[in-house]
Amino acid sequence: MALKSIIFKADLNVADMDRGYYGSHALTVAQHPSETDERMMLRLLAYALNASEGLEFGRGISDEDEPALWRRNLVGEVELWIDLGQPDEKRLKKAANTGSEAIIYAYGNRGAEVWWQGIASQAARHDNLRVYSLDTDTLAELGTLAERTMQLHVTVQEGDISVSNGVANVQVALRTLK
Hints:
Number of helices: 4
Order of helices and strands: EEHEEEHEHEHEEEE
Largest sheet: 6 strands, mixed
CATH topology: Restriction endonuclease-like alpha-beta roll fold
Oligomer: single chain
Number of domains: 1
Number of strands: 11
Structural class: alpha/beta
Shape: globular
């Protein structure tokens, strides 16, 4: 019997002073059976950092044709494509060529460094692509915030990112690769 996704409910409050965005989002997040709590929490963080009208979760892991998150306009054209991890050159090109804007959130310390060294020249060809890296310790801390029902507060001010569930607070440092 195939394993089923685990459903998480998140009340996500975003105060992004850098973008002037303030909003509350009631989200339902399906965690694929092969997805870790850490990766799922990174999806929520990516949502918070890019929160806007129309941003939604893609099928991600279970569908190679969709990103982790995306925003489409009213006629279905992709405006923003967000992927997580270390996509290969083909997927990187698809992300940059499909959306008006593409963002990659890489993770995995040494693995991410090696991946970036191998893909940086390909990434440089795409002006609409931004790439960030998150260290595994911070990712592990984010994973500890995962609960089936969550109330999360994400604050962004002068590049500093804080994620809190009211009890624990995680300071997130994203390293800009591109």
